[in-house]
Amino acid sequence: MRTLLSKGAFAIFLFLLALPAAQCKAKHQLNHDVVDAFKAIGAVVYSIALFDIDQDGDLDCVTALRTEFDKSVPSATYVWILPGLSGKEKKNVTIHVRAGTSPDKPVLTVGDDGPEQTAKFFYTDYKTCAVFEAPFQGLEECMVWVAKDVIADPPQDCVDEYEDNCDVKHIACDENTCSPFIA
Q1: How far is CA 126 from CA 16, 18, 67, 70, 97, in A?
Q2: CA geometry: angle at 57 spanning 52 and 61, to 5°?
């Protein structure tokens, strides 16, 4: 009887251990058109990272300001403004973006001499939000960026697309914490 109870308790423990991971996995159930990353980049000059995939605080309250944009090349430059929360260093990071192998996969360079890396745009409404995965500080970050005017109430399709494409949803920006850092 004791062995049966031990096995049952162990099985319940394993189930409970696996449950959070099962709830956080990307669904990959929505239909996806190929995103035109530069059309999305051209639509929003200033944006805020609303969700990211980890809880390390590196993208908490981070904002992005597009400082250059050339539709004909296409290319763009952003300054990511990291406010230095959760014990992280306060800094600005320059991100250069150019066309990649397909419209949804632009090439990024951090700073002027960083290695070229590829991002993957999953979704955008071409007005207020974009869901994409990009390398940042050695990790693949899956993020949703939104325009300032929808931060309190992001479009549901953006949230749905984020949940469909990204494994975990960590809130990187909430109004109470981030309002002092949002221009």
Answers
A1: 40, 37, 18, 17, 17
A2: 75
pTM for the full model? 0.78
Of 134, 108, 129, 110, the C-alpha closest to 173 is: 129
* 24 Cβ contact list (under 8 Å, min separation 6): 167, 168, 169
C-alpha neighbours within 13 Å on the C-beta side of residue 106: 24
Chunked into runs of 10 residues, the chain (183 residues) has average pLDDT values of 39 31 48 87 91 60 94 96 84 96 96 93 95 85 89 90 80 76 79
Residue 156 and residue 25: Cα distance in Å, rounded?
19
Q: What DSSP line would sit under 137-172, residue for residue?
A: TTEEEEEEEEEGGGSSS--HHHHHHHHHH-S--EE-
